[in-house]
Each structure stands twice: as structure tokens, then as C-alpha cells.
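Propose amino acids for all 585 sites.
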């Protein structure tokens, strides 16, 4: 037997060619190659290489997902034969996203990489209760239980799983592996987990370490160093240079203050804005009132004010089902935050005739808009927020979309054009009103990198945003954009196309570096970190973070004190942030 099949299978899996991976596997098996050799010499090295490429950003989510899908295709042929031949897996893993959390893109990748690494994986899905984890450990005779969490508010559910495993009497026989963007090795140790992994590739080596007792200690140490180095919310220990209190002159209106900031014309103070999720209003009504009274927002988003009723029943922020104006059905797990699409409307981009564009949103009541803008002295953002990438995800489901977008078909491109035409029409209508700025958004980053390759982003999405910004500027309006995750790579592009204000997770990038490179070139519209600082820091640390943000971004303007009061954030920290921003100069 030559090694040709091994190289071929590795290339096919790595290149995401599922058909070829299946065909080569069939041929190799037919010619007598043992299934375990296909795994060891073909699929395991392919997935390991895919993980390395993802970590050093030669692969992005679509490429990684394609590789995982091709590997799965080949594994489907190999797995039954391994069982028949009594070949034991590298280990048995039960994995899931913990209760209250629906983020599963990362968890699915970890599960696929573990499978590709020779583990037998039983995926319990999202919103998994501690009891369900404990039951599955017994049922599947698991060696490892893998827990994923992406929200600071759902991290405590990991401890509950560990406790439940103890209560159920299975803790001694199973190792607990945890991961997800807000986690650290210290937190893992604190809740009694056996290992922490920051990435999917690390999860595979951690799992290997866990099933080999002595490798475990080394793995934990490595993870600890990694986590300490990347702690996103760390703030400098030096004392901040906080200027003594001074009376705010307030000679200008909030609207004027924001404009001075955007134009770098030396505003009297930093403009501010709090984003409030219903989660916070429900839990902390008095604190919210106090923050709003002491630090009123200088920026406000106008309601949509349509003259025709916009379809789509229910409330996006309540538990259960919510259908939006496009007909996308969201399942929500938790009060006060949003849910996600479970049954995609689009199964094939060549048939989108049933997708309804909410044209009622174009019939805005211009008199009401004029009245609203005329009655406020705050800076007004338009009541619409195009999100082309996310709308595609809502219609098609996130994972399908990531796979589709790696090689966008003519039909997908044609639909994106229709979507873009609709958004442009909507923005033009708003641009004719008295609002001060147009807004748009799409989350483009994971914790460490862009979600798709920058070249693909530049080809498919940058031109859309360039059009939105042009519409704003042609009408004398400013352009504001929101995008979560690590997006440093595309900030120069956003500056090039003329974006005025960017709301981004600056703490998951490098605040000081962003300031050096981009300060004064566009306005940073926040944000104060919600993963580490708002839920966990002391008020003194918050004050230092405020100083750091201002030092990085303010140049006679160029920085807006913005933070979101959402899941996990402490009210005293939200208050401390605005109080500190009031004083820092
Ligand atoms: Co959400 N979201 N989201 N979101 N979202 C984050 C996580 C957030 C950090 C963004 C932000 O700060 N602005 C923030 C959390 C802040 C906090 O913790 N306090 C946040 C929020 C607030 C929310 C909502 C509350 C928003 C709202 O209601 N307004 C809501 C919550 C819903 C809920 O869970 N109940 C929400 C919803 C959503 C969408 C539905 C829109 C979508 C999820 C789609 C899905 O997963 N099916 C979404 C997305 C996409 C994100 C961001 C932008 C990207 C997450 C992602 O998919 N990354 C995220 C921003 C960010 O991460 N900075 C954000 C790609 C993926 C490959 O990476 O998941 O990190 P990741 O997985 C990595 C590693 O972490 C690791 O390996 C993976 C591969 O390397 N890993 C493990 C993960 N699990 C592991 C397990 C292991 C080992 C390693 O062992 C078992």
C-alpha cells in the first residue's frame, strides 16, 4: 500500500472537499487499508493542521467548518468499522453549551476537532442542564465532559455541572474540560475543572492530556500561561491621571457635543451613551434610573415610526418564540436578551421567493420623525440598522451560511444584492429626515480574529458598507457602525471608506495599539469591556480603564464614553465608568 491515499485524504479533508474525502476513504478501505490507519495517517493530521491554520489565521471559520464537514463525511464510513474491529477511541467525550447559553459555533468546532482527533464525541447541543450532563456521562461512559460558555452570566453554570457530577457520584471517573471566550485558566481552577482550553486545537491536546494522566499537568500549565497573557480586560496597574473635578461648562447641547467629538473640535467633555438591555432594567430598575439621571445619554436612537404596522409578533427579549419582520423565527432561552434562529427560512439560495422584505419599514412617518428630532437636544441615530451579514445568517442559520459563504454561489450573490438594494432604499429614506446619523452593524470577530478571511470580507461586504457611508455623507449625516469581536484587521478599511464612529470590543484587541494606529482617524464609540471589566472589576479598575480609553482615543474628540448595561454587568461599575469619564481629561 502506498502513502498516496494518506496524502490525498489529508488534502481532501483540509481543503474541505467532502466528496473527495468520502471517495478516497471508500477506495482505501476497499483496497484493504485498516480504518485505524485512515484515522491516524489521514484525518487526525488533517484536523490538527486545520486547527493550527485557524490559530495563526490562515484559516477562518468557513475553511475550518468545511474541513470539519469533510472529515465527518469520511468518519461516517470509518466509525462503524472501528467499532466492529473493537478499536477503542482516543477517549469518550460528552460535550455541550451550558444552561442559558445558545452560542454553539465554537463548541461545534471543538466537537468536530475532537472527533477528527479520534475521540468518540456525544454532543448534547446548547442550553444543557447540569442533570443532563451528569446523565450523559453515565449513559455514554464518558472519560471527559466538555463544557462551553460564551457569556459571563452562564459561566457559573459550569460550577453547577461540576457540583452535579459530584452529587451524581460520577465526578471521580470523569475529567472536566472547559472553554469559551470569557473563560480563563484561573476560573477553570476555581470551579474545580480539570483543564481549560482557549481554542479548539488546544481542546484536542488538553483532551489527549486528560486521558494520559502525566500529560495533564503540562497541559494545564501551558493553558494557564496562555490565559494570563491574553486576559482581555486587564488594566494597567499604574494610577490613572484623573484630572480634578471641574464644573462642566455645558455651553453646548448634547447634539453639538457629539458633533464636536466626531469632527475633533475639542468638546468640553466626553459625550456618553449607555446601551440598556431589558436584562438590566428588570434586575436593577433603581440603579438604571440613577445612572440615567446622573449621566444622561447624549445620543439617542429614534423609534422606527412607521405609518403602516410592521409585521412580526412578540417581543425579541422574552423566553420562547419570536418571529421578526422578515419572518425569521427565533427561539429564546433567557429573559432580557435575544435568541437565535432554529429553523432557517432559506434552504437553498436559488429559491428565496418566500423571503419577505419588510417594505412597511420604508413607510416612515416623517412628521413624527421631525417632531422627535425637533424636541430633543440630543444627537439622534436613525431608527434602522442594516446588518447584511447577520440577516443572511438569520435567514439561513449561522453554520449553513458560513459554509455557503466560503464559495458564494451566483444565487447567494444575487440575493445579497437584493438585500443590499433594500437596505440602501431604507437608508436613503432615513437620510432625508432630520436625524443626525445613519447606523449599520454586523459582528465580524471572534475573541481572537475575524470570522471570515479579510479578502472575502473586502470582496463581499466592504463595498456594501461603503455605499451606506456614502448615502449618509451625501445627505450631510454621520455614519455609525457596530461590530463585535476582534476586528483590528478591517479597521483601516473602515477608515478608508469614511466611517465616522465605530463601536467595537476594543478590549479584546489591544486598546493602546488601536489608539496609536487609529486614534483621531475615526471616533471610537466605546466600548468598555463587558466580558471581564463590567462584571468583575473593582470601581478603581473601572476608573483606570476609563482613563486608558480616553488616553488611547481622545484627540480633541474622537472618543465617546459608551458601555452596554447587559448580562452580568455590575451597576456600580456602569456608574463608575460614566463618573470617571466625566472627570478624565
Ligand atoms: Co453573542 N455575545 N450574544 N451572539 N456573540 C458574545 C459572546 C459577546 C462577547 C459580544 C460582546 O461582548 N459584545 C457578548 C457576551 C458578553 C458577556 O459575556 N457579558 C455576547 C452577548 C451579550 C450576546 C447576547 C446576550 C446579545 C443580546 O441579547 N443582545 C445574546 C445571548 C444569547 C444567549 O446565549 N442566550 C447573544 C447572541 C448571539 C448570536 C445569536 C447573535 C450569535 C451566536 C450564534 C451561535 O453561536 N449559534 C452571537 C455571536 C456570533 C457572538 C460573537 C460575535 C462571536 C461568537 C462566535 O461564534 N465566535 C461574540 C463576540 C466574541 O466572542 N468576542 C459574542 C466564533 C467561535 C469559533 O469562537 O465561540 O469563542 P468561540 O469558540 C472558540 C473558543 O472560545 C474555544 O474554541 C473555539 C474555537 O477556537 N472554545 C472552547 C469554545 N468552547 C470551548 C469548549 C472547550 C474548549 C474550547 O472545551 C469543552
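Proposal:
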Amino acid at each position: 500500500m502506498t502513502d498516496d491515499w494518506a496524502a490525498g485524504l489529508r488534502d481532501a479533508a483540509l481543503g474541505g472537499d467532502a466528496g473527495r474525502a468520502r471517495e478516497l476513504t471508500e477506495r482505501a478501505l476497499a483496497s484493504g487499508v485498516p480504518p485505524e490507519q485512515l484515522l491516524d495517517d489521514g484525518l487526525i493530521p488533517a484536523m490538527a493542521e486545520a486547527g493550527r491554520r485557524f490559530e495563526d489565521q490562515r484559516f477562518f471559520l468557513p475553511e475550518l467548518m468545511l474541513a470539519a464537514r469533510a472529515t465527518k463525511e469520511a468518519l461516517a464510513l470509518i466509525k462503524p468499522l472501528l467499532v466492529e474491529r473493537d478499536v477503542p477511541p482516543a477517549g469518550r467525550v460528552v460535550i455541550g453549551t451550558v444552561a442559558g447559553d445558545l452560542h454553539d459555533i465554537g463548541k461545534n468546532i471543538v466537537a468536530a476537532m475532537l472527533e477528527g482527533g479520534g475521540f468518540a464525541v456525544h454532543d448534547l447541543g446548547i442550553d444543557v442542564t447540569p442533570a443532563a450532563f451528569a446523565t450523559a456521562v453515565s449513559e455514554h461512559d464518558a472519560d471527559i465532559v466538555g463544557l462551553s460558555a460564551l457569556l459571563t452570566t452562564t459561566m457559573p453554570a459550569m460550577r453547577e455541572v461540576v457540583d452535579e457530577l459530584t452529587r451524581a457520584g460520577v465526578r471521580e471517573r470523569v475529567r472536566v474540560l472547559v472553554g469559551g471566550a470569557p473563560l480563563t485558566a484561573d476560573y477553570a481552577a476555581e470551579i474545580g475543572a480539570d483543564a481549560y482550553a482557549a481554542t479548539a486545537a488546544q481542546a484536542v491536546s488538553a483532551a489527549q492530556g486528560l486521558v494520559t494522566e502525566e500529560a495533564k499537568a503540562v497541559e494545564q500549565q501551558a493553558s494557564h500561561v496562555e490565559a494570563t497573557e491574553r486576559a482581555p480586560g486587564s488594566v494597567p496597574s499604574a494610577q490613572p491621571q484623573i484630572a480634578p473635578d471641574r464644573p462642566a461648562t455645558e455651553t453646548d447641547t448634547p447634539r453639538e457635543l457629539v458633533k464636536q467629538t466626531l469632527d475633533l473640535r475639542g468638546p468640553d467633555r466626553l459625550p456618553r451613551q449607555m446601551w440598556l438591555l431589558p436584562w438590566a432594567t428588570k434586575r436593577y430598575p433603581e440603579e438604571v434610573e440613577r445612572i440615567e439621571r446622573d449621566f444622561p445619554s447624549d445620543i439617542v436612537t429614534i423609534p422606527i415610526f412607521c405609518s403602516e404596522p410592521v409585521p412580526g409578533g412578540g417581543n425579541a427579549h422574552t423566553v420562547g418564540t419570536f418571529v421578526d419582520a422578515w419572518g425569521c423565527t427565533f427561539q429564546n432561552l433567557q429573559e432580557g436578551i435575544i435568541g437565535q434562529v432554529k429553523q432557517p427560512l432559506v434552504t437553498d439560495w436559488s429559491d428565496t421567493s418566500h423571503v419577505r422584505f419588510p417594505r412597511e419599514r420604508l413607510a416612515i412617518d416623517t412628521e413624527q420623525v421631525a417632531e422627535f428630532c425637533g424636541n430633543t437636544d440630543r444627537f439622534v441615530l436613525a431608527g434602522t440598522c442594516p446588518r447584511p451579514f447577520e440577516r443572511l445568517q438569520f435567514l439561513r442559520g449561522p453554520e449553513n451560511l458560513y459554509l455557503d459563504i466560503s464559495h458564494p454561489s451566483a444565487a447567494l450573490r444575487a440575493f445579497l444584492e437584493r438585500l443590499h438594494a433594500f437596505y440602501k432604499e431604507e437608508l436613503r429614506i432615513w437620510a432625508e429626515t432630520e436625524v443626525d446619523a445613519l447606523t449599520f452593524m454586523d459582528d465580524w470577530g471572534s475573541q481572537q480574529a475575524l470570522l471570515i478571511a479579510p479578502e472575502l470580507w473586502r470582496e463581499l461586504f466592504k463595498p456594501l458598507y461603503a455605499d451606506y457611508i456614502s448615502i449618509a455623507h451625501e445627505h450631510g449625516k454621520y455614519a455609525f457602525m457596530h461590530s463585535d469581536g476582534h476586528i483590528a484587521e478591517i479597521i483601516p478599511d473602515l477608515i478608508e471608506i469614511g466611517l465616522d464612529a465605530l463601536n467595537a470590543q476594543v478590549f479584546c484587541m489591544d486598546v493602546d495599539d488601536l489608539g496609536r494606529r487609529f486614534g483621531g482617524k475615526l471616533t471610537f464609540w466605546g466600548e468598555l469591556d463587558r466580558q471581564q471589566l463590567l462584571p468583575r472589576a473593582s470601581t478603581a479598575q473601572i476608573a483606570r480603564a476609563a482613563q486608558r480609553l480616553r488616553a488611547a482615543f481622545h484627540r480633541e474628540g474622537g472618543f465617546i464614553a459608551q458601555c452596554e448595561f447587559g448580562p452580568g454587568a455590575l451597576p456600580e461599575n456602569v456608574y463608575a465608568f460614566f463618573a470617571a469619564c466625566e472627570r478624565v481629561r
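The CA atoms of residues 72 and 112 lie 8 Å apart. The radius of gyration is 25 Å.
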